[in-house]
Structure formats: structure tokens, C-alpha cells
Amino acid sequence: MNEKEKILRELYNESLDYMCWYPVPATCISKFTKVSLYKTKKILHNLQDEGIVKFKRGYVSDRFSYEGELEEEGFFYCGWELTEKGKDNDLYKKLKKEYDEEMDKMGRDFNDFCQKLNCEVKKVTDEMIIDYYKKGYSIEQIAHFFPSVIFERKRTKLANDK
């Protein structure tokens, strides 16, 4: 695999990762692919000329709580992301299919987890669960987010015992 393919594969993986919503800096691409920063930038500019990637920069503003306290400071971001032309590729489609299958498997794992706890799963859509997985949460954390769903049977039993 040559350096251009390494960089493209890294951009494909980053664009499929729903945790990574901002463009990927050239320094990160260089570090992950173990290609020099100079060569990485040169290849990215060539890909930009081909219309496969684009450079993007922006600003995420401060986030405040309802009480007016600063929760998260704003920050600037800049980096590279795929264009629609860049996503119209057999390798990208193959990686996307694999990623979607992995997310589906995680959703099935969550249902198995609930069954092991002898819990009744109410109407929680797979999309909700997969969204939490995509955000990087573990099964235990998801169970914490949906306690009324996961432990419905146990709560009902406790209520009936009173």
C-alpha cells in the first residue's frame, strides 16, 4: 500500500467514525499513517486538486449551562475531510458496509446483555442504542442511560411485591 492509499484509508476511517465530526488535521493523518508531514500535506493538496478532499476550518462557540456558567470553551478547528466525490469509491463503500455491520453487531450485543440480566427490553430503537455506541459509550454506560428500559421487569416485580 503506497502513501496515498494509506492517507485515503485513514480519511475514510475517520469519516466513518461518527465520534469524529470535525475535519482531521494533517498532523494527525501524518501520525496515524506514519508518513512525513511534508509528504502528507503534499498528497492532501494533490487530492484536493482532484476534488477528493477539501480543507475546512471553523469555530465551535462556547457552551453555557442554563444557569449561565461556562460548561465548555469554544475552539477553532481545521483539517481535511472527504468530498462527495471522495466518498464515491469502492473502498469507501466496502469500509462503510463493514462499519455498519459492526454497529449492528453492537446493537445485538446490547440486546444479549439485557437478556442475560433477565430484563424486558421496551421500545428502544436500535438507532438510539447505536447512536450511543457511535459516541463511544460502553454497554454499562448505555445501561445507565436507559435504566427504566433495561430494568423494567425488576421494577415491576418490586412494585408488585409491596
Q: Any low-confidence stretches, pLDDT <50, length ≥5?
A: 148-162
Give the overall pLDDT as a whole number: 76
Count of all domains = 2
Instruction: Assign the CATH class of the largest domain.
Output: Mainly Alpha
- What do we call the CATH topology of the largest domain? Arc Repressor Mutant, subunit A
The appropriate CATH architecture of the largest domain is Orthogonal Bundle
**CATH superfamily caption of the largest domain:** Winged helix-like DNA-binding domain superfamily/Winged helix DNA-binding domain
C-alpha-based Rg, rounded: 21 Å
Largest sheet: 2 strands, antiparallel
Gap between N and C termini? 66 Å
Q: How many beta strands in the DSSP annotation? A: 4
Describe this protein's structure.
A hairpin with a 5-residue loop joins strand 2 and strand 3 (70-72). Helix 1 packs across helix 2, helix 1 (3-16) crosses helix 5 (90-116) and helix 2 (26-33) packs across helix 3 (37-50). The longest helix has 27 residues, at 90-116. This protein is α+β, with helices and mostly antiparallel strands. It contains nine helices and four strands; from the N terminus they run αααββββαααααα. Helix content is 60%, strand content 13%. It has helices at residues 3-16, 26-33, 37-50, 84-87, 90-116, 126-134, 139-145, 147-150, 152-161; strands at 53-60, 63-64, 70-72, 75-82. Residues 148-162 have low confidence and may be disordered. The protein folds into two domains: 3-88, Winged helix-like DNA-binding domain superfamily/Winged helix DNA-binding domain (Arc Repressor Mutant, subunit A, Orthogonal Bundle); 99-161, no CATH class. The strands form two sheets. The protein has a two-stranded antiparallel sheet with strand order 1-4.
